[in-house]
Each structure stands twice: as C-alpha cells, then as structure tokens.
Amino acid sequence: MPTAHCPALLPEKAASEERIGESSTFAGLDEKLCFPVYADSHALTAAHRPLLESHGLNYPHFLVLLALWENDGRSVKDLSERLHLDSVTLTSLLRRMEAAGLLRRRRNPADERHLLVELTENGRTLRSIVGEIRKTLICALGGKVGPVLELQEKVEKVAELLRAAPHLQPAA
Predict the structure, then answer these.
(1) Structural domain of 102
(2) Given this model, what pLDDT does residue 29 score?
(3) What is the total count of domains within the chain?
C-alpha cells in the first residue's frame, strides 16, 4: 500500500511494471533499486582496496580521513553525522586509526563532555593520495568526470529523499 504514504505517486507505467505486471506484489532483483546500489557499493569499495592498501588504509579509514581533510578537528558527533555512522561503529574505527597514528582524539576544551578528532602529521600527509585515487577511479568509470558527477548527484538525492521520508523513520 505505498500510495497511502505517497500521495504524489504518479499513475504512469514504469518499464518494470510492464515486465512484472501491474497486479504483481513481487519485485525481483532486477526491479529493485536497492540491489544495484548495494552491488555498486561493494564494487566501489573493492576498487578502492588496491589503491588504499599500499598506504595501510581500508575504505572506512579513507572515509574518515576524507571527512577530516574537509574539516579537521571535528567532534565525534559531527563526524558520525557526516559519515552516517553510529557512534559505536565510529568509535571503534577511530580507536584503530589512533593506534595507527593517523589521528588523535582529545577532549574539547570548551566542553569536556565532547571529543574532538584531529589528524596527526601522518594523517595530513596521506591527503596527497586523493587526487590519484580519484583519477584512477574516473578512468575506470569511462574517463569523463561529468557523467560521474551526474550519477553522484542522483545517488545523493535518493539518500536525501529516503532519510527525509517520514514513513521510513524508526519508531520513537
């Protein structure tokens, strides 16, 4: 009963509806947006692996570093929101990265209840790998930046819409 939550649902037939029949309640993998996004996520993570391993990083480490290169000295809460990670997952990740000498956590002098995350010199030095990783991945995706940025905008819009949909929020 998706129309109860979405009064703006358009009555037009999608190609997938024609393939599976309007009255069908089953949507296979080929009709689900979530599956290619899931598979693409794995493919992107795997594509990053050989580019990051030589620097002692994995993909989650890289994401934390990217967020800190954008804005060093973020609070753990801000970092959690930026990366869409729960605090337990992020705290474990930050501990491992701190042990590896990539960052340090310290109490916020303005409010001792909050932790700030700052890059170490080793963490700042790794920023130089970003450009080469980006070029390598864009090359693997056809060599043109425009289509990659268009796809990125569409994927970000999907995530934004899903996070904002009131009927998909966890029960309070």
Answers:
(1) 34-164
(2) 86
(3) 1
